[in-house]
């Protein structure tokens, strides 16, 4: 009975975190971008600092009709938002906040999280194919090309940390971390973060959804709550990327004070990485498709391979 109760508590905890954290990131994006770009609009809704902006967005999406185009593959079209968002909830369940504070402490947690994050991109592919729209299909094909290019450096940089720690368990990696990894694994951190942004199709890697070129790409035909689910999936992806970056490269719960407050350090680090993701969106212009491919294959992949090789040498020698 105790085991069943613990299972229910863990599931509820993961579900609450999944429902709350992406909304907080969405609210933060409104405010951070408003400050960085001197936007006045997001600061008015609800009065003080525009606290009700996210509520207003939610009401707007609920009021809009969810339309299914006549030429669409209805089943694929309707399932695409669900396929896009659910893998991130599964990934969040395997990322630890602190020792013992994790939805599912898996021996191969890193492998599991990387695998399910890749599945999430299938939602964009399904949306592009199922919409019955040539622009949407073009956006879906761009998603596929981008995923194929950046999956390799993303996995290689994560593998470097797993080799250094001697474990595929995210909890084990966080336990093995020590501060000098900030220098030793720094190239891997840069590669992992950039490749993660590209996997999530975040600026400056948002060519598949570029409104000025392909009218929001795979999501052109989506309205109402279905469209909102894609936005929520994007913010959930930011949370997962920030949490995974924190555990792999920033020490997870490591910080001053007793281990009992380690979860606070994890949350603060995740919040910091999430703000950096937003800052990158505001600061860098969108890349061209050829620049994106060149960065992946001529820049990130070689750096990730060198990092992996140096990590292997370091583990053997030291």
From TrEMBL:
Protein's name in the database: NADH-quinone oxidoreductase subunit H
Location of the protein in the cell: Cell membrane; Membrane
InterPro entries hit by this protein: NADH_UbQ_OxRdtase_su1/FPO
Complex and partners: NDH-1 is composed of 14 different subunits. Subunits NuoA, H, J, K, L, M, N constitute the membrane sector of the complex.
TM stretches of this protein: 7-26, 79-98, 110-131, 152-174, 180-198, 227-250, 262-284, 296-317
Function comment: NDH-1 shuttles electrons from NADH, via FMN and iron-sulfur (Fe-S) centers, to quinones in the respiratory chain. The immediate electron acceptor for the enzyme in this species is believed to be ubiquinone. Couples the redox reaction to proton translocation (for every two electrons transferred, four hydrogen ions are translocated across the cytoplasmic membrane), and thus conserves the redox energy in a proton gradient. This subunit may bind ubiquinone.
Species of origin: Kribbella sindirgiensis
Protein's membrane topology: Multi-pass membrane protein
Keyword Membrane annotated: yes
Keywords: Cell membrane, Membrane, NAD, Quinone, Translocase, Transmembrane, Transmembrane helix, Ubiquinone
Cleavable signal peptide: none
């Amino acid at each position: 009975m105790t085991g069943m109760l613990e299972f229910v508590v863990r599931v509820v905890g993961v579900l609450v975190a999944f429902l709350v954290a992406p909304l907080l990131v969405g609210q933060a994006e409104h405010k951070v971008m408003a400050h960085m770009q001197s936007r006045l609009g997001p600061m008015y809704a609800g009065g003080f600092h525009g606290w009700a902006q996210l509520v207003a967005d939610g009401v707007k999406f609920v009021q809009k009709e969810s339309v299914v185009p006549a030429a669409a593959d209805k089943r694929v079209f309707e399932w695409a938002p669900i396929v896009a968002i659910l893998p991130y909830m599964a990934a969040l369940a395997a990322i630890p906040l602190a020792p013992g504070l994790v939805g599912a402490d898996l021996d191969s947690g890193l492998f599991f999280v990387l695998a399910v994050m890749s599945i999430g991109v299938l939602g964009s592919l399904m949306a592009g194919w199922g919409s019955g729209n040539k622009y949407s299909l073009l956006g879906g094909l761009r998603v596929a090309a981008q995923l194929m290019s950046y999956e390799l450096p993303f996995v290689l940089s994560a593998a470097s940390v797993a080799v250094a720690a001697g474990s595929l368990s995210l909890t084990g990696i966080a336990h093995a971390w020590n501060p000098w990894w900030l220098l030793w694994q720094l190239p891997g951190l840069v590669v992992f973060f950039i490749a993660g942004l590209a996997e999530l199709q975040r600026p400056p890697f948002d060519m598949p959804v570029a409104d000025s070129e392909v009218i929001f790409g795979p999501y052109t035909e989506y309205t109402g709550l279905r469209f909102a689910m894609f936005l929520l999936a994007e913010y959930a992806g930011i949370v997962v990327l920030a949490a995974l970056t924190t555990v792999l490269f920033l020490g997870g719960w490591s910080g001053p004070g007793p281990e009992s407050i380690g979860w606070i350090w994890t949350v603060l680090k995740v919040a910091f990485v999430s703000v950096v993701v937003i800052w990158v969106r505001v600061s860098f212009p969108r890349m061209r498709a050829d620049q994106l491919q060149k960065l992946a294959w001529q820049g990130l992949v070689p750096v990730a391979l060198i990092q992996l090789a140096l990590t292997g040498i370091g583990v053997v020698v030291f």
